[in-house]
């Protein structure tokens, strides 16, 4: 590979098509406690996103600004997931379908897709509605055509895409319907085998670029011998999920905190992930922000980098901020 490969990375587009646009205020409807509903409103308005339905044009901005990258990684979360059950909900499926159609029209075979947690469903931060649905998995893989695992080579470079929710499935166990638990466990076991087989077959000292939506998966990956022994060859791990460098930095600061088990399932899952977050650094994590960023810092955007033949040099990612 004598010519550098220009790589575009975007994540957490959270596109909202007409069906989800019609559900404004969806989170409040899932919260019974009025004080908790007020707290959620304040959190969304001043910290996270005041209007999550208004950011569709940011995807068009990226497509116009980046018409001809050599490779594109879109690192999950293509819908707004307003029913918290992923694309088994028809309106969420419509959003993901429209978002992916735009990406595929723009980039064709250059596009590499990973599965985010909102494709599969997860409980709401406030109210505890929703969770993983096996139908969402089947529709993501079957109808949307997103591969759960892939390995793409560019010269000596090995790009590996995984499904973070499967890897970190123990964290999501309380969100799984009891009747679906055996199927999820089978999917996870097969997925871990795919990952180990791939890491075993990549030639030693060939550089690896891992694409993983949710950093909660990284401690589970570290437990796999085939992955652990290849960490020296792992040049970077592309992450999404956290939306903002400010959230990523806070997660690093909170790494090692105790798991909190008395404030509901979502707090338990998040705090348990942070308890294990000290292992993230071994994976050389690089966060791709969401296009919108968060309300508090308005630091959304996307990343680009060059994959060169000089694999000994460090990867340098450029963050492109998007105005809001």
Describe, in plain words, how this protein is organized in 3D.
By secondary structure, this protein is of the alpha/beta class. It has a single domain (5-321), classed as 4-Layer Sandwich (Purple Acid Phosphatase, chain A, domain 2), CATH 3.60.21. 37% of the residues lie in helices and 15% in strands. It has 14 helices and ten strands. A five-stranded mixed β-sheet has the order 3-2-1-9-10, with helices on one face. A five-stranded mixed β-sheet has the order 4-5-6-7-8, with no helix packed on it. The chain is globular. The model has no long low-confidence stretch (mean pLDDT 92).
CATH architecture heading: 4-Layer Sandwich
The assigned structural class equals alpha/beta
Q: Total number of β-strand segments?
A: 10
How many separate helices?
14
Radius of gyration: 19 Å
Separation, N- and C-terminal Cα atoms: 38 Å
Instruction: Give helix % range.
Output: 25-40%
Main sheet characteristics: 5 strands, mixed
**Looking across the biggest beta sheet, what order are the strands in?**
3-2-1-9-10
Order of helices and strands: EHHHHEHEHHEEHHHEHHEHHEEE
By CATH, the topology is: Purple Acid Phosphatase, chain A, domain 2
CATH class: Alpha Beta
- The total domain count is 1
Please report which band the strand proportion falls in: under 5%, 5-15%, 15-25%, 25-35%, 35-45% or over 45%.
5-15%
Poorly predicted spans? none
């Amino acid at each position: 590979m004598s010519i550098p490969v220009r790589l575009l990375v975007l994540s957490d587009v959270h596109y909202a098509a007409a069906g989800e646009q019609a559900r404004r205020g969806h989170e409040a409807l899932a919260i019974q406690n009025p004080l908790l509903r007020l707290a959620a409103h304040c959190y969304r308005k001043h910290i996270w996103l005041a209007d999550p339905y208004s950011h569709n044009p940011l995807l068009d901005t990226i497509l116009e600004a980046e018409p001809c990258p050599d490779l594109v990684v879109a690192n999950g979360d293509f819908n707004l997931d307003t029913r918290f059950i992923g694309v088994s909900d028809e309106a969420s499926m419509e959003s993901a379908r429209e978002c992916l159609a735009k990406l595929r029209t723009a980039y064709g075979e250059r596009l590499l897709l990973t599965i985010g947690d909102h494709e599969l469903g997860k409980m709401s931060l406030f109210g505890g509605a929703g969770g993983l649905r096996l139908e969402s998995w089947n529709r993501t893989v079957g109808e949307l055509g997103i591969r759960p695992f892939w390995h793409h080579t560019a010269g000596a470079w090995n790009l590996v895409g995984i499904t973070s929710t499967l890897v970190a499935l123990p964290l999501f166990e309380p969100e799984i319907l009891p009747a679906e638990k055996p199927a999820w466990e089978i999917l996870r076991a097969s997925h871990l085998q795919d990952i180990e087989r791939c890491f075993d077959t990549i030639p030693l000292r060939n550089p690896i670029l891992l694409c993983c939506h949710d950093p909660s998966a990284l401690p589970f990956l570290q437990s796999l011998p085939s992955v652990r022994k290849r960490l020296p060859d792992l040049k970077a791990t592309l992450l999404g999920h956290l939306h903002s460098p400010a959230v990523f930095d806070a997660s690093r600061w909170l790494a090692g905190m105790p798991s909190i088990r008395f404030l509901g399932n979502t707090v338990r899952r998040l705090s348990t992930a942070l308890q294990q977050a000290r292992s993230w650094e071994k994976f050389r994590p690089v966060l791709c922000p969401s296009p919108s960023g968060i309300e508090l810092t308005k630091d959304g955007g996307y990343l680009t980098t060059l994959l060169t033949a000089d694999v000994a040099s460090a990867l340098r990612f450029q963050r492109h901020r998007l105005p809001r």
